[in-house]
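Hi everyone, sorry if this is the wrong subforum. Our group has a chain we'd like a structural model of before ordering constructs, and none of us has done structure prediction before. Sequence below.
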Amino acid sequence: MPIATVDPSTGETLKTYEALGSEEIERRLATADATFAAYRTTSVGDRAILLERAADLLESDQDEIAGLMTREMGKPVTQARAEAAKCVKAMRWYAGRAESLLADEHPAATDVEDSGGRAARVVYRPLGVVLAVMPWNFPLWQVVRFAAPALMAGNVGLLKHASNVPQTALYLEDLFRRAGFPEGCFQTLLVGSGAVEGVLRDRRVAAATLTGSEPAGRAVASVAGDEIKKTVLELGGSDPFLVLPSADVPRAAETAVTARVQNNGQSCIAAKRFIVHRDVYEEFGKLFTAGMRALRVGDPRDEATHVGPLSSERGRSDLEELVDDAVQQGAEVLCGGRRPEELERGWYYEPTVLAGVTSQMRIHREEAFGPVATLYRVADLDEAVLLANDTQFGLSSNVWTRDEGDVTRCVRDLQAGGVYVNGMTASHPAFPFGGVKRSGYGRELSGHGIHEFCNITTVWHGA
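Answer:
Right subforum, don't worry. Here is the predicted structure as tokens:
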């Protein structure tokens, strides 16, 4: 895949880049390694000042970077501005809390005495150079939610971003430079996926984090395992959205629309499978389908647009194949199911709801990365939980109910990294984020996220 900005609303190539050669990759690795040797000794307070400056700069650049993201990957501009604002919030959250999150921990005095020591503590030390392999769908947020905690912990970062968002990748490198971070603290590597293994195997790279597809995660995990290097993986998702008899059905249906089509439906944590109890199925299905049908599809630069184009022609073709397979096997199209006839250019696809989906259909097993929802009718909570877990993924889940017994059961039995009750899944800097099964491992955000790339060190003093 060429490293290029291609406007998904028109298919026009706007700018292309040459991949870095081996000499430049080596120079950047050496710079990162040398920078870490000094940066790791800086105080958390000094790092916080730099991160606050980066937040201020990003806040000032909000309109500019929003427009850039929209041009590169088709995100509606209103959502792009919101993404930039979310990054500012996360930077400030970590700048304000990292000192307490990284503070030494002191085991109970009785445990220290029992160990035969006079004192002990747990210290969080940075690992070193961390390689971040990041996706295009949230080109700013995915990077910042790694970079903010990693830099505050004293690590340095190398970013291998998706090849269709090179300008956003370069903007991020420049942002941290302008904020005053030392040269080499955060560098962008404009390289193809084939160069990742060599970088990850380099002795100067201590760890890696990847957000992306299952095959990409498997490849990085395999290399990292061979090198015995720490990894955090956030992979695909096919999140269930359970609507149970006591739910506020109109509010659930309204939220379901947003949960499915955020970022043009191209989100790992988007609700994708809508599992509805038979007592409220008809009401929910009618309201949800009407909401999806009412969405405005069009130019992502238009403030009134709800759903823009998919990021690539291949992405749209893959989505069409899933829908066509389901329809051929008997699924009912309640709305959408086609390209908008009025939009001749660009990679658009109508918001779609499919009913009558069965386990034999590909869309039941695979992740639909676009504005397509599958609707299921179930007889009871047992069947709802069984269906929700009938997937290789386990990123997050959504449950709509007023019954605390339902909540307790879902928290106990849903195989996912999150259970969001009467709301939609959304990442927030204060809460750990990540999945189970083939959705990956490790956690981003919160204190758990900053500790992922720390050497958690026991310091023990004899009596």
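For your construct planning: The mean pLDDT is 98. The domain at 3-236+437-462 is CATH 3.40.605.10 (Aldehyde Dehydrogenase; Chain A, domain 1).
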